[in-house]
Amino acid sequence: MSVQGPPRRPLGSLNSTPPATPPLRPPTNQTGPQCLEVSVPDGLFLSLGLVSVLENVLVVAAIAKNRNLHSPMYYFICCLAVSDLLVSVSNMLEMAVLLLLEAGALAARATVVQQLDDAIDVLVCGAMVSSLCFLGAIAVDR
């Protein structure tokens, strides 16, 4: 007497879902063409971040060193450069952590990674708001 149970699946497919059939037409909420994913190489992303850091450091150093640039407008520009510097550094820090995690060089628990990601996101958002405020202050000063 043989007992028939569910069909056996290979071990690797326990958590996989069956492939979905592509829809014949786009869903009703999509009206335009499909969005394409753009992939920016990690080296390019890090090098642009480094260039941004260097440019903002040069702006801060020029304003701090030159006495002719010690007026309220240039202080606002200096604060804008510091805000942009924080955005650049936090983006580079986040990319470096992601690259280290992907390479396996950094072993961390999921909760630590989530807390670090939250802290970096708060830093980026705060620096972006600060940057916008200083842009507004520069516009009012002019």
TrEMBL record:
Any one GO MF annotation of this record: melanocyte-stimulating hormone receptor activity
Chief location of this protein within or outside the cell: membrane
Keyword set, alphabetical order: Cell membrane, G-protein coupled receptor, Glycoprotein, Membrane, Receptor, Transducer, Transmembrane, Transmembrane helix
Pfam families hit by this protein: 7tm_1
Subcellular location: Cell membrane
Any one cellular-component term (Gene Ontology): plasma membrane
InterPro entries assigned to the protein according to its UniProt record, in alphabetical order: GPCR_Rhodpsn (IPR000276), GPCR_Rhodpsn_7TM (IPR017452), Melcrt_ACTH_rcpt (IPR001671), MSH_rcpt (IPR000761)
Domain of life: Eukaryota
Gene3D superfamilies: Rhodopsin 7-helix transmembrane proteins
Entry coiled-coil feature ranges: none
Task of the protein: Receptor for MSH (alpha, beta and gamma) and ACTH. The activity of this receptor is mediated by G proteins which activate adenylate cyclase.
Subunit structure, as described in the record: Interacts with MGRN1, but does not undergo MGRN1-mediated ubiquitination; this interaction competes with GNAS-binding and thus inhibits agonist-induced cAMP production. Interacts with OPN3; the interaction results in a decrease in MC1R-mediated cAMP signaling and ultimately a decrease in melanin production in melanocytes.
Stored PANTHER family: G-PROTEIN COUPLED RECEPTOR (PTHR22750)
Name of this protein: Melanocyte-stimulating hormone receptor
Taxonomic path: Eukaryota, Metazoa, Chordata, Craniata, Vertebrata
Gene of this entry: MC1R
